[in-house]
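Notes, p. 3: input format for complexes.
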Amino acid sequence: MTTRYPQAGFQVCRQGSVELWCGDFFHFHIEQAAEIGAFYDRASLIALPPATRQRYAFHLAQLVPPGSRGLLISLEREPGDEGGPPFSVLPDEVRDLFTPNFQVTLLEQGEPEPGRGFRESAWALVRRGPLE
Ligand SMILES: C[S@@+](CC[C@H](N)C(=O)[O-])C[C@H]1O[C@@H](n2cnc3c(N)ncnc32)[C@H](O)[C@@H]1O
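Output follows (132 residues plus S-adenosylmethionine):
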């Protein structure tokens, strides 16, 4: 059975041990996250302008405990295409954003999609501990 309720400015949807918190990511705090074992970002980072991407990477690192694993799907526009959103986030930027707090591994880089002008890449992130 699914239950839905408002909490701390979010709409929460709960089934069993899984909760979905819908709201502003930057207002989601560690006190609200009992324990995050895994995370998934498809096309969230690339919806944000550059300065906000820094905040995003830092906030994510505050939320997830060491060992937590994530799958990040990013997007790269053709060279010279500075449009957005969605913004082009090059592989070097993904590494720069997350390497301070995560092990970062490029899993796969797609081919440019005909007619869309960009390609996706998949990244594995693992939150590092304080001594790593
Ligand atoms: C490009 S869409 C991707 C949607 C979906 N994940 C997908 O892959 O089709 C970017 C999403 O980021 C969400 N978003 C942008 N800023 C956000 C924020 N501060 N907190 C939560 N979601 C945000 C937008 O509402 C939008 O749904």
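Helices lie at 50-63, 91-98.
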